[in-house]
Amino acid sequence: MSLASNWIFWALLSAVFAALTAIFAKVGVDNIDSDLATLIRTVVILVALAGFVYFAGKWRNPLELPARAWGFLVLSGLAAGASWVCYFRALKLGEVSKVAPIDKLSILLVAVFAFFFLDERPSVREWTGILMIGAGALLLALKR
Q: What is the value of pTM for the model shown?
């Protein structure tokens, strides 16, 4: 299996970029409103992704997508936007080394939501790891 088709490769890259996002955002919100910072970041993402989709030849008419896909992508976008607004406000007010671990409680929440809404059934071993991640995030965030 090539690296480009390996989900672990992409997940690790996502983690690296998420870590860089936290560091860059913490510096970026210094002396500006966190909501304005979120807007600027969102515009940058929009332009970058539009260019990527276009130049990679992946563009297709969004109006041809199924209504169900549209609905869930809109909900995902709204949730992501709300997450970003909250994340940037938290970064503005707190230390990145405390904010980022709390944000990572999303790992625990994803597992719980996937259990209830997507009928995913992690094993006892997987639940143990998920709970350990949650406990670790809280331990890091609540340090004094």
A: 0.82
